[in-house]
């Protein structure tokens, strides 16, 4: 055995166990409730990808990569543009995350669908796959990335790694490997090729590059699986080896989180869906401020000061006092609270370049203070408001809407989808796309979802 493949005594062959499971599990082995959550994840991701399709981040990325695209097989959702599958995976991963409105595995803060669904749907337009099989592969990929995330969280995240990018590449590799029928050894190779491409820095939060992470994870994970399909080899213990992913990129390695109860404990069933288009740690503050606005009415215009008591992670991640752009605003609890109080909004329009620079938002934002209290749960907040006349109002949010305790219903996911999609592709396309996405398991060709996302008038123009 070569040195780079050695494993410490007592450490299981994690990469092999996970690869064997991914190869051997059948769609029918996945419980109905897990498949249902996977479908909710896919519908939510589709809406987010279309919702972000016209963001300037996507425009700029598309302009940069278009000259290098190969055969145009795969759709950039919500646009008439088609690229090769690898670049389409990149663009759809960027688009689905750029509004910070996508799904969240709350135990790790991974956004599971972006890397995995972006790779799979791009693949489906190049190599046909049924909707049933795509959903199976999606769940397998999400399970792999979230279990690997569990293994190293929070130490890996605390070091500064953006875990959606670093763990997401494994999810994309597992999902594509499942979809194209790799052998167990080939999936082990794919994990190794994915591991050596694992990247994404939290320093990039608040910039266009944050959404690059799930896009690149989708592209790199797909590429890893395709290389492995061609028998391009790698270390077969890339996760657990002394110089492998877990040991190099984290001070914590809990391999039981990866290998225990595979097929009976489902991380993919724990996914949640954002009601607000920003970092999830701000959601309790937005939820509470919107509730206060509804209770107070016009009195929100007479606020003297606002105090937030939050978990320390809130200020670590979202402590930008004076954001200058919409993307920076997504990482400012001060802006988010001000927008919620004055506009009653936490959706994409609350985080535009224009909104973060509006005079009344800035004025209220400057009166807001936030204190970190380790005793405060990450999903909780205490809000205290003082008005110009000396009166006060308070609000405690124990668990915000969208959390596992207060999950979004299917109807709320539908409304979120429609509100994002209609401004981009219109009402008729949105209605057809939403129906097609919910019908995924019945589709003989999963690529119907991608085709259903193209604006009718632009599709005609592109074909002429």
Automatic annotation (TrEMBL):
InterPro entries: MmgE/PrpD_sf (IPR036148), MmgE/PrpD_sf_1 (IPR042183), MmgE/PrpD_sf_2 (IPR042188), MmgE_PrpD (IPR005656), MmgE_PrpD_C (IPR045337), MmgE_PrpD_N (IPR045336). Residues 276-439 form the MmgE/PrpD C-terminal domain. It comes from the Bacteria. Residues 17-256 form the MmgE/PrpD N-terminal domain. It holds the Pfam family MmgE_PrpD_N. Belongs to the PrpD family. This is MmgE/PrpD family protein. It comes from Chelativorans salis.
